[in-house]
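Per your request, structure below.
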C-alpha cells in the first residue's frame, strides 16, 4: 500500500472517462514521481489551539527499520492523468490554498516493507502503532519528517506502518520491556516528558497519521537558479513548414504502344501479358483500345490528384513531342510537370538513355535525347518511365543534369546578368526496372504492372495477394478485385483498405527515409506523395517478378518491412467477408461489414511504446498511423490523447509530430465544437506553442484563438475535473499568441481575455494564477490600448494583491506583469500616480525570501528608474548630501559602526577629488572642523516613493544572492554614473570627496577587531569580477553605505591593509596568551571574554555561487532597464514531461537505485546503533575515534545523521566539511558573510536523502548549499536576509535558527524582538512572534512533528515556551527564569524521553517539562563557567564544555549528578598553552555514541566514542 494524500477536494476532480484527467497509479519505490512544480499542496492555516495533549504531537518517527519510500514532488501541474504539475507535476493534483500554508516541493511517502527487526505480535495495525509509539515516542532530528497536508483542527504526522519494536517513530530503536539497566527505563516511572504519551494513545492522533514526507529547496526554481536553459541544451527546432510547397499542375500522359506491332528488340512469350490500364488490347480494335487505355490512365491519375490538368499523347510524333513539352512548361511556369512515358510499343531506351517515339507515318522509331527532353520540360518535373531497361534513362538523366548545371555556371561566368535557369536537380524520376531488366510478361499480370502499382494500388495489391497466397481459395483474382465501396469513403471496404494502405506506406517511408527526403517526397506535393506511396508497393510486387524499380532520389529497399504483413492481414480480412458482402448486394442474407481492427491495434502498439519504449527517444513507428487515425471520428479522441502523451515527452517529440504533418490536423480541429476534444486540444496546442511560437499567424486565421478564449472564460464549461490546469494552458497559449505579435494583441484586446485573467487571479491553482499574470503581461506589453483598458479594470491593483501570494512563481509573474505595465506614453499626473502606487506596493517584496522574486523586483525597479531617471538622479545626489551631513555631524560611516568591515574589491575609479589631497587618517582642518557642509535647503526627494525605491535598490545591491545583487548594482551604478555625467557632476564630485575624507577619518579613529584581508592573497572567487565592476556597491556586503563605497572607489583597496594595525597582540600560536582574569559578565555572549583565532582571514576560500551565475564584464557599460528571463524560464515548464515520472523516479534508473540504497543505508545505521544506547550510560566516553586538523578555529560542530560528514565552522566565514570516518577534508568554502560577522547557525535539510546545508550568519542572512561536500560542484541554492533588523556585530548572539523538517518552516531569532517564522515552500515570512523579552535570543528548539511548540533561550537566562497555534501576541505560554545567566543552549530531544535540556554560562544545567513551572532536574556541571552544551538525540546523555578546556559527559537518567560519566579534554597545542581555554565546539552524532569537541585557540577537532564498538 502506498500512502499518498490528496487534496480533500481532489478525489472527485478526476474524470474516469478522460485519460487527460485520471490520476497516476503510483508504484512502490523510493522515488515514484507524481507531480512537480512550484505549486505545492494545500495546507490550511492551523491557528486553532488544540487541547494540551494534542498540542505537541511528534511523529517525526518512523518505526519500521527498513521501509521503502515513494518520492512525491510537491506541486500541482497538468498531467494527462489529471493532476497539476508545477515543476514537473509532483503531487497528485494538489494546489496551494490562497490562505493557507503550503507543502514543500518533494515528498517521501513510505509504504509497508519490513525487512528486519522484531515484529510486534499484533494483528491490528492500530494496536501495533500504539505499542510502538509507547515504546518509541520520538523521532530522530529532521529525519523522515514531512510537511503534511493538514486540516484546520488536527495536525497530521507521518504514519509508521509496518511497525517494528523497538523502533521509535523516528526510526531509532528504543528499549521495550525489561532492561538490565534500570536507569534506561526511568520513563516507565515518570512517563514521557511533556505529556506526549497521552497524545500517542489518542484515537484522534492515530486517525490523522499520514505517510507523506517532503523535501525542500529541490524545485525547478532552485535546480535551475531561476535561469532558462542554455540554447545548447534546448532541443533544436526543426523546420517543419513546407515553405517551398509545390503542385503538379500539368501532366503529359505519353503512350507509345503501337498496338498490334511488337518492337524489334522485344521477344514476347506466349501467352503474354495483354492488359494496359486494365484494358485487354486483344478485345478491341487498336485505335479504340488505345483511346480506352488513355482514358483509363487519366482516370487512374485523377484518383491521385483531381486538380492536375492531364493531356493524353497517344503514339506521339517527334515534332508533337517537342511542341507539347514546351507548351506544358510555358503554362506551368514554376510549378511541377508530370511526364508519364509508356514505351511498351517502342524499342528499349538506348544506352545513352534516349527514348523512342514515332514518325508521322509510323514507319520509323525516332529517338529523343534526354538532354533535349530536359530542356523542353525544364524543372521542376516528375518523370515516370514504364518500359524495359528504364534504369538507363535514370542514369543518363542524372548525367545530363550535371551537364546542364555546368553550362549554367559557365554562362553566368560569361554574363552575370543572364537569366537564371531552374535547377534540374529538382527533377524526380520513377522507373519500372533497372538497366538490363525486362518487364514481366506473366499473362496473369497486366502488361503495365508498374503503372498499375502507381495508379491503382489497391486493385493490384489484391490481385497480387490472391496470386501469392499459398492457401486454396474460391476467389478468383477478377472476383477479388471487385471489393465494394469507393476509395474516398473510409467506412466502405474499399475506402477502408485505401485508408489502411495510405497509413502503412506513409509509416514505412517515415521509418526508412531520412527526414528531409521524407518531407520532400511525402509532404511537399500531393501527386508526388501519392506516387511514392504507391512506388513502395511496386518495389514489393515487381521484385517477385525479377524487376527492381528505381527512383531518383533513390529509396532504400522496403519490401521486407514488417508492416506489409499488417497489410496482408487487412486484405485477408476484407476478402474473407467478400462472399457475404457480394451475396448481400445480390439480394441474399443481409450482412454488416466488420471493420478492420488495424487502427485499434496500432493505437495499442503506440500506447505500449509510450509506456515502455520512449526512454531512448526512438521515434515511434506508429506516428504516421496516428496522424491518419485523426481523420476518423471513431478513433479521434483516443488518438489525440495518445498524441498528447507523446508530445509531453519533450521538444523532440513535438518536432517529430510537426515534421510528420500533424499541424494542419490540429489546426482544423479548432473548428470542432466537440466538448470532449477541448481538454486534449488545449494540451496539444500548449506543447506545440512551447516549442514553436511561429504558429501565431495560423491561430489568427479562421479565429482559431477564440477556441482558447472561450475555454479561458470562467463561465465556460470544460469536461474535465482539473479545469483550472487547462485554463492555465489556455492562458499560456494566449500569452504566446500575443507575445511579440501585435495582431494577436489587437484581437485579444476586447475585455474578455483581460477580465478572464483577472478573475483567475483568485483561483486556487497557482499555475493558473501565474499564467493569468503572464498572459496579462503579454497582452499589454508595448500596447497602450490594453494598458488603458487595464487601468479602467483596475488590473494593476488586482495584481498588487498578489504581493503575498503563497507561491514564489506567482509573485514573480505578478512583478513581471507590473513591469510590462509601466510605460504608458502619456506621462500625465494620473499615470504617474498609478505607477508610483504600483511601485509602492512592490516595495513590500524587498524582503521576500525567494531569490527569483527579488530578481524580478530589481527588473521592475530598473524599469521604474528608467521611467523616472531625472528624479532618481536628484534622489541619488541628495542621498550623497545626506550621507555627508551625517558624517560631518559626528556620525560615522555605516560601514564602521560596530567594528571593521573592510572592502574586498577595487574601485572602478570613476571619480576624482576636487577638494585637494586626501591624507590617510584625516584631512585638513577646514575639512573636518566646519559645519558649512551641511545644507539647509529642503530635499526634494525626501519622503517620496523615489527615495524609498532608491534605498531598496541600495539594499538589493548587497543582496546575498549574487544574481540579485549584480542586477541591482547595474541600476545603482548607472544612476551614479549619470549623476557624475550630468550638470550637477562637479558638485557631486565635491560631495564624494568630502564623504571619502570623513570616512577615512572615522575609520582611522576606530580600533577594528579584525585586520583587513590581504586582497592580493585572496583566491579568485566566481563572482570577484562582479565585485570589481561596481564602484558603489562592490565593497558592501552588509550595508548600503555610500561612504564605504566611495572610500573604496577613491583609494582602491591596494593600500587598505596598511591603514589599520591589529587590534590586539597574539601569541605566536594564534591564540590569546591568557584568559581574562576578571570576573566575566554572565549576561554577555560567552565569547566576548575570549580572544579569537586569527590564523585565517575572511574570504580565504572560494565562495559558492548559484547555478548558471555569470559574472558581468566589468568593462561593459551599465544599461537599464535590466532584462528579465522569467518569461522564458516559465515557458520551459510546458516543454518538460508532465504526465510521466522523471527518469530519476523510474525503477532501475541510476538515481532511483541511489535513493533506494540511501534508504537501506539509513535504516541499517539506525538498527546498528540501537545496541549502543545501553552502553551510553555505562561506558566511558574517552575512547579516541579521530583527530582532525581543521587548519582554522572550529567554533561549531555538527554531524550528519547518515553520511560520514562533520561540518565545522570557524569564527569568521569558513565552512569545512570532513569525512570523519576517513579523517579526510572533503571541502572548505567561504560562507560570504561580511567582515566582522561570523557563522552563528548550521543545520541540515533533507537529511534522509541528499542533504542541503544551511548556514546563518551574524548579518541576518541564511544561505542554503547543494553538494556542500564537493569542492567543484557546490552551489548556492537559495539565500535571503531572514532578519532584516539584525545589526551585524561580534558582540551578539547573531542569527539563531531551528529547522522543522516536518513542517517545512524555519524559526529565526537573534538580537531582535521577534521570532520570525519562514515557510520553505512559500519562501516568505509567515508571522513574527513577539519574543516578549528585552534580551537577545541565544538558542531555539522545537518539537519536530506538528512543530507547534518551541522554546527559546535568552541572554538574561530566561526560557520561554511558545505555541504557534495561538495568536502571535498570545503565543508565549510559559516563561522560566531559573537561570540567571546567558543561555548557552536549550534543546529538546528528538528521541528517547524527549528531554528538554538547558544550560547557562554559569555551569547550571536544567531539565524541564513544559507542563511544570520548575525544572524536573538541575545540577551544576561546571563551577567556573560553561561554554558549550550538546544533547544526544536518542541516548540519555548530554555533554558540557567548560571554560577551562574539559568536556563532561552526563547521564541524565541518573538520580544524582555528583560525578559525570566521563571527563575528556580536547587537543592541546604545543606545550599545552591553551589547556585552560574554553571548549567552543561540541556536538553529538545523532545516532552513534560519538562526540566531537574542540577548544579555543586550537585548530584540531577531537572525536570520542563511548567505547571501542561505538563507531559502528
Amino acid at each position: 500500500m502506498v500512502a499518498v494524500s490528496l487534496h480533500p477536494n481532489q478525489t472527485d476532480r478526476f474524470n474516469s472517462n478522460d485519460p487527460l484527467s485520471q490520476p497516476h497509479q503510483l508504484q512502490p519505490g523510493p522515488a515514484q514521481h507524481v507531480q512537480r512544480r512550484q505549486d505545492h499542496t494545500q495546507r490550511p492555516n492551523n491557528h486553532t489551539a488544540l487541547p494540551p495533549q494534542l498540542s505537541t504531537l511528534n511523529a517525526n518517527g518512523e518505526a519500521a527499520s527498513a521501509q521503502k519510500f515513494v518520492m512525491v514532488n510537491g506541486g500541482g501541474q497538468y498531467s494527462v492523468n489529471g493532476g497539476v504539475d508545477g515543476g514537473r507535476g509532483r503531487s497528485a493534483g494538489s494546489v496551494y490554498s490562497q490562505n493557507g500554508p503550503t507543502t514543500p516541493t518533494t515528498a517521501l511517502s513510505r509504504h509497508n516493507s519490513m525487512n528486519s527487526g522484531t515484529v510486534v505480535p499484533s494483528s491490528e495495525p492500530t494496536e501495533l502503532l500504539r505499542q510502538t509509539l509507547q515504546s518509541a515516542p520520538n523521532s530522530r532530528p529532521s529525519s523522515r519528517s514531512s510537511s503534511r497536508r493538514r486540516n484546520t483542527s488536527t495536525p497530521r504526522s507521518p504514519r509508521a506502518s509496518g511497525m517494528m519494536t523497538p523502533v521509535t517513530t523516528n526510526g531509532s530503536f528504543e528499549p521495550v520491556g525489561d532492561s538490565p539497566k534500570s536507569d534506561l527505563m526511568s520513563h516507565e516511572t515518570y512517563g514521557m516528558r511533556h505529556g506526549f504519551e497521552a497524545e500517542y494513545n489518542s484515537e484522534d492522533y492515530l486517525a490523522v497519521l499520514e505517510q507523506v514526507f517532503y523535501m525542500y529547496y529541490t524545485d525547478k526554481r532552485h535546480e535551475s537558479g531561476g535561469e532558462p536553459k542554455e540554447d545548447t541544451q534546448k532541443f533544436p527546432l526543426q523546420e517543419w513548414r513546407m515553405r517551398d510547397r509545390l503542385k503538379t499542375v500539368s501532366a503529359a500522359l505519353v503512350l507509345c504502344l503501337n498496338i498490334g506491332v511488337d518492337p524489334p528488340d522485344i521477344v514476347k512469350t506466349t501467352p503474354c501479358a495483354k492488359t494496359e490500364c486494365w484494358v485487354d488490347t486483344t478485345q478491341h480494335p487498336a485505335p479504340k483500345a488505345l483511346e480506352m487505355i488513355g482514358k483509363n490512365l487519366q482516370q487512374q491519375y485523377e484518383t491521385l490528384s483531381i486538380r492536375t490538368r492531364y493531356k493524353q499523347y497517344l503514339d506521339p510524333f517527334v515534332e508533337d513531342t517537342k511542341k507539347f513539352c514546351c507548351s506544358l512548361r510555358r503554362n506551368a511556369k514554376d510549378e511541377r510537370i508530370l511526364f508519364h512515358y509508356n514505351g511498351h510499343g517502342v524499342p528499349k531506351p538506348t544506352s545513352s538513355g534516349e527514348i523512342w517515339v514515332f514518325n508521322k507515318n509510323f514507319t520509323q522509331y525516332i529517338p529523343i535525347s534526354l538532354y533535349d527532353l530536359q530542356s523542353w520540360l525544364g524543372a521542376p518535373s516528375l518523370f515516370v518511365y514504364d518500359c524495359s531497361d528504364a534504369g538507363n534513362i535514370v542514369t543518363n538523366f542524372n548525367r545530363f543534369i550535371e551537364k546542364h548545371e555546368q553550362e549554367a555556371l559557365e554562362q553566368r561566368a560569361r554574363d552575370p546578368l543572364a537569366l537564371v535557369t531552374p535547377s534540374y536537380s529538382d527533377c524526380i524520376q520513377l522507373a519500372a526496372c533497372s538497366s538490363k531488366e525486362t518487364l514481366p510478361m506473366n499473362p496473369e499480370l497486366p502488361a503495365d504492372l508498374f503503372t498499375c502499382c502507381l495508379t491503382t494500388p489497391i486493385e493490384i495489391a489484391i490481385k497480387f495477394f490472391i496470386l501469392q497466397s499459398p492457401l486454396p481459395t474460391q476467389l478468383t483474382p477478377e472476383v477479388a478485385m471487385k471489393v465494394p465501396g469507393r476509395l474516398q469513403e473510409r467506412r466502405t471496404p474499399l475506402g477502408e483498405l485505401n485508408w489502411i494502405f495510405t497509413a502503412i506506406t506513409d509509416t514505412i517511408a517515415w521509418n526508412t527515409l531520412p527526414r528531409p527526403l521524407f518531407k520532400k517526397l511525402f509532404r511537399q506535393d500531393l501527386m508526388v506523395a501519392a506516387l511514392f506511396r504507391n512506388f513502395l508497393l511496386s518495389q514489393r510486387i515487381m521484385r517477385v517478378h525479377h524487376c527492381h524499380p528505381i527512383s531518383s532520389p533513390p529509396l532504400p529497399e522496403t519490401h521486407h518491412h514488417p508492416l506489409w504483413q499488417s497489410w496482408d492481414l487487412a486484405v485477408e480480412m476484407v476478402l474473407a467477408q467478400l462472399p457475404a458482402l457480394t451475396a448481400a448486394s445480390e439480394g441474399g442474407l443481409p450482412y454488416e461489414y466488420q471493420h478492420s481492427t488495424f487502427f485499434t491495434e496500432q493505437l495499442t502498439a503506440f500506447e505500449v511504446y509510450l509506456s515502455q519504449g520512449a526512454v531512448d527517444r526512438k521515434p515511434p513507428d506508429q506516428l504516421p498511423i496516428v496522424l491518419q487515425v485523426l481523420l476518423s471520428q471513431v478513433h479521434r479522441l483516443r488518438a489525440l490523447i495518445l498524441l498528447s502523451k507523446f508530445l509531453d515527452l519533450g521538444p523532440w517529440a513535438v518536432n517529430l509530430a510537426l515534421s510528420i504533418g500533424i499541424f494542419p490536423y490540429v489546426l482544423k480541429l479548432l473548428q470542432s465544437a466537440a466538448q470532449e476534444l477541448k481538454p486534449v486540444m488545449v494540451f496539444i496546442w500548449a506543447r506545440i506553442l512551447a516549442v514553436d511560437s511561429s504558429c501565431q499567424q495560423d491561430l489568427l486565421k479562421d479565429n482559431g484563438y477564440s477556441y482558447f478564449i472561450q475555454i479561458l472564460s470562467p463561465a465556460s464549461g470544460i469536461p474535465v475535473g482539473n479545469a483550472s490546469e487547462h485554463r492555465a494552458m489556455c492562458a499560456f497559449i494566449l500569452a504566446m499568441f500575443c507575445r511579440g505579435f501585435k495582431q494577436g494583441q489587437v484581437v485579444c484586446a476586447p475585455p474578455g481575455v483581460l477580465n478572464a485573467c483577472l478573475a483567475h487571479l483568485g483561483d486556487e491553482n497557482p499555475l493558473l494564477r501565474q499564467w493569468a499574470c503572464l498572459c496579462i503581461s503579454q497582452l499589454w506589453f508595448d500596447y497602450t490600448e490594453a494598458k488603458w483598458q487595464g487601468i479602467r479594470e483596475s488590473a494593476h491593483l488586482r495584481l498588487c494583491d498578489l504581493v503575498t501570494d503563497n507561491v514564489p512563481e506567482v509573485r514573480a509573474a505578478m512583478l513581471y506583469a507590473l513591469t510590462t505595465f509601466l510605460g504608458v506614453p502619456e506621462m500625465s499626473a494620473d499615470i504617474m500616480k498609478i505607477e508610483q502606487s504600483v511601485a509602492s506596493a512592490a516595495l513590500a517584496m524587498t524582503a521576500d525570501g525567494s531569490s527569483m522574486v527579488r530578481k524580478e523586483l530589481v527588473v521592475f525597479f530598473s524599469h521604474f528608474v528608467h521611467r523616472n531617471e531625472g528624479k532618481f538622479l536628484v534622489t541619488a545626489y541628495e542621498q550623497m548630501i545626506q550621507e555627508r551631513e551625517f558624517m560631518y555631524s559626528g556620525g560615522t560611516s555605516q560601514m564602521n559602526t560596530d567594528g571593521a568591515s573592510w572592502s574586498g574589491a577595487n574601485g572602478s575609479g570613476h571619480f576624482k577629488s576636487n577638494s585637494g589631497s586626501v591624507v590617510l587618517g584625516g584631512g585638513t582642518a577646514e575639512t573636518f572642523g566646519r559645519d558649512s557642509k551641511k545644507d539647509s535647503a529642503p530635499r526634494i526627494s525626501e519622503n517620496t516613493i523615489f527615495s524609498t525605491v532608491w534605498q531598496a535598490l541600495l539594499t538589493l545591491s548587497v543582496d546575498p544572492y549574487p544574481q540579485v545583487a549584480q542586477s541591482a548594482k547595474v541600476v545603482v551604478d548607472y544612476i551614479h554614473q549619470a549623476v557624475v555625467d550630468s550638470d550637477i557632476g562637479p558638485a557631486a564630485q565635491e560631495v564624494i570627496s568630502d564623504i571619502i575624507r570623513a570616512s577615512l577619518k572615522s575609520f582611522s579613529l576606530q580600533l577594528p577587531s579584525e585586520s583587513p584581508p590581504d586582497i592580493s592573497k585572496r583566491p579568485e572567487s566566481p563572482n570577484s569580477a562582479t565585485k570589481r565592476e561596481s564602484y558603489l556597491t562592490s565593497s558592501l556586503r552588509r550595508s548600503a553605505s555610500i561612504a564605504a563605497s566611495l572610500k573604496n572607489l577613491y583609494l582602491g583597496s591596494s593600500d587598505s591593509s596598511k591603514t589599520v594595525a591589529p587590534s590586539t597582540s597574539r601569541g605566536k600560536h594564534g591564540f590569546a596568551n591568557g584568559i581574562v582574569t576578571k570576573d566575566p559578565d554572565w549576561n554577555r555572549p560567552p565569547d566576548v571574554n575570549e580572544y579569537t583565532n586569527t590564523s585565517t582571514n575572511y574570504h580565504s576560500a572560494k565562495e559558492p555561487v548559484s547555478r548558471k551565475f555569470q559574472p558581468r564584464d566589468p568593462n561593459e557599460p551599465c544599461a537599464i532597464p535590466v532584462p528579465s528571463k522569467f518569461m522564458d524560464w516559465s515557458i520551459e515548464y510546458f516543454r518538460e514531461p508532465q504526465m510521466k515520472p522523471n527518469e530519476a523516479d523510474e525503477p532501475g534508473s541510476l538515481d532511483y537505485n541511489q535513493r533506494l540504497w540511501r534508504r537501506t543505508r539509513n535504516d541499517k545505521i539506525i538498527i546498528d546503533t540501537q545496541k549502543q544506547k545501553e552502553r551510553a550510560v555505562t561506558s566511558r566516553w574517552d575512547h579516541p575515534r579521530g583527530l582532525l586538523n581543521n587548519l582554522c578555529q572550529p567554533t561549531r560542530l555538527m554531524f550528519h545523521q547518515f553520511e560520514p560528514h562533520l561540518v565545522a565552522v570557524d569564527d569568521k566565514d569558513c565552512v569545512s566539511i570532513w569525512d570523519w570516518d576517513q579523517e579526510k577534508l572533503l571541502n572548505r568554502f567561504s560562507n560570504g558573510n561580511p567582515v566582522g560577522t561570523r557563522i552563528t547557525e548550521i543545520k541540515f535539510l533533507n537529511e534522509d536523502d541528499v542533504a542541503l546545508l544551511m548556514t546563518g550568519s551574524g548579518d541576518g542572512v541564511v544561505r542554503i548549499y547543494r553538494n556542500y561536500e564537493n569542492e567543484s560542484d557546490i552551489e548556492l541554492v537559495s539565500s535571503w536576509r531572514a532578519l532584516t533588523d539584525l545589526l551585524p556585530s561580534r558582540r551578539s548572539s547573531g542569527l539563531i535558527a531551528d529547522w522543522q523538517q516536518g513542517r517545512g518552516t524555519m524559526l529565526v531569532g537573534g538580537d531582535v524582538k521577534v521570532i520570525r517564522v519562514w515557510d520553505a515552500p512559500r519562501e516568505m515570512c509567515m508571522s513574527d512572534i513577539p519574543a516578549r523579552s528585552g534580551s537577545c535570543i541565544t538558542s531555539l528548539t522545537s518539537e519536530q512533528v506538528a512543530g507547534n511548540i518551541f522554546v527559546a533561550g535568552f541572554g538574561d537566562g530566561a526560557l520561554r515556551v511558545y505555541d504557534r497555534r495561538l495568536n502571535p501576541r498570545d503565543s508565549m505560554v510559559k516563561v522560566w527564569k531559573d537561570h540567571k545567566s546567558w543561555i548557552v543552549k536549550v534543546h529538546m530531544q528528538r528521541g528517547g524521553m524527549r528531554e528538554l535540556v538547558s544550560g547557562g554560562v554559569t555551569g547550571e544545567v536544567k531539565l524541564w517539562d513544559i507542563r511544570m513551572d520548575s525544572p524536573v532536574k538541575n545540577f551544576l556541571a561546571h563551577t567556573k563557567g560553561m561554554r558549550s552544551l550538546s544533547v544526544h538525540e536518542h541516548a540519555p546523555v548530554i555533554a558540557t564544555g567548560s571554560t577551562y578546556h574539559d568536556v563532561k559527559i552526563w547521564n541524565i537518567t541518573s538520580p544524582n549528578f555528583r560525578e559525570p560519566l566521563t571527563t575528556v579534554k580536547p587537543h592541546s597545542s604545543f606545550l599545552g598553552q591553551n589547556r585552560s581555554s574554553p571548549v567552543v565546539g561540541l556536538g553529538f552524532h545523532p545516532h552513534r555514541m560519538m562526540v566531537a569537541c574542540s577548544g579555543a585557540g586550537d585548530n584540531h577537532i577531537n572525536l570520542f566514542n563511548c567505547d571501542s564498538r561505538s563507531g559502528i
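The mean pLDDT is 77.

Regards,
D.
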